[in-house]
Amino acid sequence: MFIVTGLGNPSKEFENTPHNAGYMFVDQLREFLVQESGLEINDWSNEKRMFLSSICKIKKDGELIGILQKPLTYMNSSGSAVKLLLNKFPCDQYILAHDDLDMPLGRYKIQFGKSPKSHKGVLSVESALGDKAFLRVRIGVDNRGNRIISGDEYVLMPYTDKEIALLGKCIKDSILDLNSNYLQL
Hints:
By secondary structure, the chain is an alpha/beta fold. The chain is 37% helix and 28% strand.
């Protein structure tokens, strides 16, 4: 059993911003699994009441083998949603996908226990779980050039179409890497 959480902000106004790279990741992961895996992939289900999240269940031969999660809390409170889901569905492998301002747009890293030092969403998850020992898909989002804009302001600014395309390719590459080397579905 695996659970993959994509961090983001639930409001429509944040849809194409750097901070929603985690949401974009789990959306693309779901589409990849629908097209490539032969598994039973549910649509996104709003489970705000029970899990403060939208979730997508993944089944093999009728048995639940995975869940994709988009917390419906705001980024800095994501840990509460993650904890609710993991309390109900203990898993063998927990994976957190999130934006990373320490890397340029178009790059990614899949690492165990490593993340940006001051990412409040990641810190919220670590605090709620009382653990840092889980896999992270770190999606590079920095495209500020000379960095005149603060990180806090930048991650909430909408991307251009060109930036969205670059981010989409990066996410696709990270999904192929994750599937080949970690999930193997």
